[in-house]
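Researcher: Next sequence.
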Amino acid sequence: MNILYHAHSGLRYLVLLAALGAVVSLAYALAMGRKDRSARVLPIVFTALLDLQVLLGIALVMGGVFPDAAVGHLVMMVIALAAAHGASVMGQRASSERREMIIRLVGTVLALLLIAGGIMALGRSVLGSAPLSTG
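Model: Next structure:
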């Protein structure tokens, strides 16, 4: 469980970095009026990393690592995942490329805020670390 916990905790930095990259890339593409390769790829990378992060979290819960504060964390992470996937689906169905970029940008920012809130729901800072606790 210790390895799984550290993998889950460490992957958070990649998720946050991918989210920030996606936000910057989508904002830049919106400002330029056209979507480039990074504006296509980074939101996908962010969502894929978030999927993996949630899977690791589920494995931790199934393995018995479930502190009392984790309920708020779990709820916020599931909502963040829904926001990321929802923005992807809605973006694909958008009537224009500009509208697609706006939808994906809003969904990514919302997911990023929910992730930060979910981390703080554990009583930890977004970029900090804490030892493994079992509950």
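Model: The chain has a mean pLDDT of 90. Residues 2-32 form the longest helix (31 residues).
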